[in-house]
Amino acid sequence: MADVDGVGGENDAAGFGIGIPVETEAYFLKGSNDLGWGMKDRMSRIFSPESGRTVMLAFDHGYFLGPTSKLERIDLAIRPLAPLADVLMCTRGALRTCIPPTYNKAISLRCTGGISVLKELSDEVIAVNIQDAVRLNASAMAVQVHIGGVHERQTIDNLVKIVDSGMQYGVATLAVTAVGREMVRDARYLGLATRICAEMGAQFVKTYYCDEGFEKVTAGCPVPIVIAGGKKLPELDALKMCRRAIDEGALGVDMGRNIFQSDAPVAILKAVRAVVHDGLTPEQAFEMYETLKNE
Q1: φ/ψ bin of 119: left (φ > 0), alpha (ψ from -120 to 50), beta (otherwise)
Q2: Which of 50, 60, 109, 170 could be stapled to 39 by a disulfide with Cβ–Cβ 3.0 to 4.6 Å?
């Protein structure tokens, strides 16, 4: 029979905290307060609870581009960088073959595909199911969405299906807004694309930065926005883009080519982290980059 001597009685009021109200903590991340506990836990791996921001490292380019410049060997290019990123944005094939599970990083898993750069890029299908995303302990599933593309409806359908499956298992969905050659990367288009993704249920959205009106894009999107790095820029320009995006409402960056195609990938990734998480100016971060590069 269980010993009941240790069960709280009339003299144990202090242990019950009588008179102390139960504290209810609001979740720190924009648009995420009413998500389930498991999804909030995963989002807290993506976005730092201390800074409220994230630095994602994208190396999923091969799913439609094949061997990308300076990403020909994922193991050689990414392993030195992975410990410095908050999140790894990649395909399941690259993850299983090239990234040690001991790195214990949040994973944003590319879950749509089915095309190559030789074909119409909006003609994507769902390429990973929720069970495999859970097996890989993914924090988020990434879906490409082509607003205005030839197969716009199909890509939105992919997004809705991934959101629904993610809600069942507590895995977040990242909607990635694709911009075709014929589309203008201005605030009007980006505002349209990001808002649609959020309204369809994505927990956060990846989009491009634009020089004018980007604060309207982030204000009009009820969930966090992270910016894509896009094509390789000079390091100072990349740092300036990061700073402007954060100042105008983005909650992080997801960079690939601006990191692994740099002459000093580790140094630039550390500099980007300093801008995003520590509030350094682009000039301060660039000085940091130059110092680290020359060590």
Answers
A1: beta
A2: 170
Query: Is the pLDDT assigned to residue 56 strictly greater than 80?
Result: yes
Residue with tokens 């879906």: 143
**Does any domain span residue 133?**
yes
Provide φ and ψ at 173, rounded to 5°: -115, 130
Q: What percent of the chain has pLDDT over 90?
A: 87
What's the whole-model pTM score?
A: 0.93
Residue 223 lies in a domain: yes
Report the b/e string of 21-32 with b at 16+ CB within 10 A.
eeeeeeebbbeb
Query: Quick count: other Cβ atoms within 10 Å of Cβ 8?
Result: 9
Per the structure, the complete domain to which residue 94 belongs is given by 32-263
Cα(178)–Cα(186) distance, rounded to whole angstroms?
Answer: 13
Nearest to 91 by CA among 124, 55, 56, 127: 127
C-alpha distances (whole Å) from 198 to each of 95, 153, 162, 220, 247 are 27, 15, 13, 10, 21
Q: What is the pLDDT of residue 19?
A: 86
Q: Is residue 161 among the annotated active site residues?
A: no
Catalytic residue among 105, 119, 161, 206: 206
The gap between the terminal CA atoms of the chain, to the nearest Å, is: 68
Q: Is residue 294 part of a domain?
A: no
Look up the CATH number of the domain holding residue 197.
Answer: 3.20.20.70
